[in-house]
Amino acid sequence: MTEPARDAIGARLRVCGQGEDDWLFPSVSRLGQHTGTRQYARIVDQRVCMIDLEPDGYGTHTLRRTKGSLVYKKVGKLRACQLLLGHRKLESTVRYLGIEVDDALKMSEQIDL
User: Fold this and answer.
1) I need a labelling partner for 74 at 20 to 30 A (CA). Which of 29, 32, 88, 98 fits?
2) For residues 73, 75, 79 and 81, what is the CA-based torsion angle, rounded to 10 degrees?
3) Structure pTM?
4) pLDDT tens, the chain, 113 aa long
């Protein structure tokens, strides 16, 4: 995992407006740290099963991708999605979200700067 992606995940795991040691998913074994990625995946799996959803259809990666897609659909800003997802290249974000390059170019032309 790249450092920007790790930082983006860390920023998302922190509870907004709280201190450095306040995490949405705090670690039980490392005081003041967030839950590791594997434990986070277990939590997601447990919650998906608790609400009777198909476990194969949901995971940490699908949640990450869905969040990026929803942000893009709502605000139409690829740069915001790029920052949220921790991608270095805008082209990576376009590919990741499954956006057609022509559609992305049309949207960017409609925005006045």
Assistant:
1) 88
2) -50
3) 0.53
4) 455 555 555 555 555 445 555 677 788 888 888 888 888 889 889 888 888 888 888 888 888 888 888 888 888 888 888 888 888 988 888 888 887 766 666 666 665 54
Chain position carrying tokens 């995992």 = 1
Q: Write out the two tokens for 111.
A: 């925005």
Residue ranges per structural domain of the chain:
3-57, 60-110
Q: Cα–Cα distance between 79 and 85 in angstroms, integer?
A: 10
Q: Which residues contact 6 (CB under 8 A, 6 or more apart)?
A: 86
